[in-house]
């Protein structure tokens, strides 16, 4: 199969924001080339021994992604250029030149697997790619087997980690959990492993839902304990009914700020009295906007956590009625 490879030239500081913008447009499988050295901690977690020589003064960065032949490249480029022009009002996004080339390489979609190795997310949660061996398992470890495929959620992103740390802190055995934007299913699976009685994951991307079901199976968790449904809980009334009202002790949503804001006005109806809304996917420049929305929708903010440029908000619903 032929693919069109698009390579966008930007600058190191803008890589994260440009990548988020591309993902917002539904573009997945990004390849990033820059001169940012990985940290000592990342080197250990990823079991990397040999590091390339980097010219750290060079601030150029390249983000590549692929479109299937037949996808409307012109339309995509137009949307990317619009996105870059919006972002350039906040940060220097560099030249924004886009180079187009054709490739027959159909295995680009699996190339990332080379870099996804088992890693310890905290003291006892270990993420293990399904195709890798785990050599340093300790007593009490919770090992999560994962093949995210093209879905988001390997556990290495700060926003996923922030949600996992919040689940570890607030989830007690027997709770019911709703995971909005479940991606690879990682948060649902971890919630179940932490003792949740029942978990429901929802995602607007049917491919992500298929992946999460496969990951549930690899982790030997039953459908009765963890279910996944495709749909948008913000707008789909049938899904709202299926998800159930005033039912969940915790709703966790790791989606972008622009989705968390409307979601905060809808999610209270699914939470039990005193239930918790754990949200992340919030870039720090949007923290105040999300906090304002969460409070305006009746939530009491219990904690705001930060990791890198990302934020999570843990909020409690003081009453069930009125939403
Ligand atoms: C950043 S990923 C999070 C994946 C995983 N939960 C994690 O924490 O790593 C966000 C996911 O939300 C999904 N999504 C986006 N908008 C949504 C919406 N309105 N309702 C449900 N899912 C949504 C996307 O398809 C994507 O899989």
From TrEMBL:
The keyword S-adenosyl-L-methionine applies. It holds the Pfam family PrmA. Its EC number is 2.1.1.-. It catalyses: L-lysyl-[protein] + 3 S-adenosyl-L-methionine = N(6),N(6),N(6)-trimethyl-L-lysyl-[protein] + 3 S-adenosyl-L-homocysteine + 3 H(+). GO terms for biological process: methylation. CDD domains: AdoMet_MTases. InterPro entries: Ribosomal_L11_MeTrfase_PrmA, Ribosomal_PrmA_MeTrfase, SAM-dependent_MTases_sf. Belongs to the methyltransferase superfamily. PrmA family. This is Ribosomal protein L11 methyltransferase. It comes from Anaerocolumna xylanovorans DSM 12503. The gene is prmA.
């Amino acid at each position: 199969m032929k693919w069109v490879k698009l390579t966008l030239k930007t600058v190191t500081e803008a890589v994260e924001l440009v990548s988020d913008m591309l993902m917002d447009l539904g573009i997945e499988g990004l390849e990033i080339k820059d001169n940012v050295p990985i940290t000592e901690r990342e080197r250990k977690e990823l079991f990397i021994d040999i590091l390339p020589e980097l010219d750290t003064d060079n601030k150029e960065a390249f983000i590549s992604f692929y479109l299937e032949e037949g996808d409307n490249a012109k339309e995509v480029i137009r949307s990317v250029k619009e996105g870059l022009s919006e972002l350039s009002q906040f940060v220097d996004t560099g030249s924004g030149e886009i180079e187009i080339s054709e490739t027959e390489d159909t295995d680009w979609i699996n190339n990332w697997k080379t870099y996804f190795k088992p890693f310890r997310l905290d003291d006892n949660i270990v993420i293990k790619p399904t195709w890798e061996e785990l050599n340093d398992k300790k007593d009490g470890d919770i090992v999560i087997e994962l093949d995210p495929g093209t879905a988001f959620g390997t556990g290495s992103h700060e926003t996923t980690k922030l949600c996992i740390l919040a689940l570890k802190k607030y989830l007690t055995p027997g709770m019911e959990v709703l995971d909005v934007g479940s991606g690879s299913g990682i948060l649902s699976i971890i919630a179940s492993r932490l003792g949740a009685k029942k978990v429901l994951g929802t995602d607007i991307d049917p491919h992500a839902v298929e992946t999460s079901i496969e990951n549930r199976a690899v982790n030997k968790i039953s459908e009765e304990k963890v279910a996944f449904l495709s749909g948008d809980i913000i707008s789909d009334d049938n899904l709202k009914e299926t998800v159930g009202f005033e039912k969940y002790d915790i709703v966790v949503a790791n989606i972008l700020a622009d989705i968390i804001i409307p979601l905060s006005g809808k999610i209270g109806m699914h939470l039990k009295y005193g239930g918790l809304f754990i949200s992340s996917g919030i870039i720090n420049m949007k923290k105040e906007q999300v906090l304002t929305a969460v409070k305006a929708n009746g939530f009491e903010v219990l904690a705001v956590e930060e990791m890198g440029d990302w934020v999570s908000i843990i909020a409690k619903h003081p009453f069930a009625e009125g939403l």
